[in-house]
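dumping this here before i forget
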Amino acid sequence: MLCSAKTSGQLTVAVRRRKMSVTTCRTMKAGFTFAFALCCLALAGVRGDSFTVLQAPEFVSFQKGDWPVSGEKVPDVVALTMGFSIEEDLLWPGLQAGPLFQRPRANVLVVVRGVDSLAFPQTVASYPLENPVPFTLDSVAETVHSLFSEYTPVVLQLAPSEERLYMLGKANAVFEDLPVTLQQIRARLSQDGSVLTSLPLNSLSRNSEADLLFLSEVQVLHDITALLQRHRHLAKDFSPDLYSLELSGLEELSRLYGKDSPQYRDATAILASVLQKFGEDMYRLYGNRAVVEVVTVKTFEAPLTRKSRSILESKQISNPGSPYNLAYKYNSDYAVIFNIVLWLMIALALAVIAIAYNLWNMDPGYDSIIYRMTNQKIRMD
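structure:
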């Protein structure tokens, strides 16, 4: 009896321990699953800024993937899509080399501040943007102007919120009527054919300054495509065109209403649909040979700079354009020019030595035809 009681007690304890271990394992699995879900949600929520390609021709191959691109390298990506060379190699697998004799007719880059991503219905590729520092396409614009100065390409850089406009080439004649200042754009909104009559404003107000700033940027996008439709010959010439637009209306709305407000959500939806249509119109106007990119960034990070002062600083500045007594910068062609000059000088020096040696050891009566003819003439006389 005692043995049977002990045996049954041991079995009961063993069963209880087994149930407890099973329950513990299930609890741990459920905890791991919940933690994994929270991590996924957190990663999805902090996806970050993005570089999205809305339109691109077939010969400009963007590979789909999650390769991050640095903000300071965006001008290099734009230059490579247009077939231009850059100073440093771009070690980014998102853009593959294309045909040598096929180049897009235009590149359109739109920078949207105040949002990390937009829900576009259709895109070519999208990549995360890291190190979002402020950048410009001035280097690309200078390359376009220097290579195609005879054809006067269209170069348009516009930031409506800052009333900043830069036009070059044929853009001076075509886009001279484009509203630039906020006062001009607000006057354009009250005219016929403005976006106020076609867009669903919903919670946006026509009496709010921040709302009008956002709507004015949408109006500028509409007016650019309208002007190009009236001047279709610009999209058919030989020279490539460059457009750089910076929109900050969403940033003002998020600062005023908050990112959870209905105004911000409605503005985000409106801008996504407007940019999608803007990219399709620009792509069609240039005969399906235009690249349209959108950079979405919450806020730009100021680049870190370090200022130093030497204790051996002299009053004589080697570079008058720099107040820090810095030397002149070498460009990428310095090594090539140095080698050309060096070996040319060596070749000329060797040539001078060889010629001088041959002249020194030359026999005037035998090697020179002048002295030979002179001697024959003297003998004949």
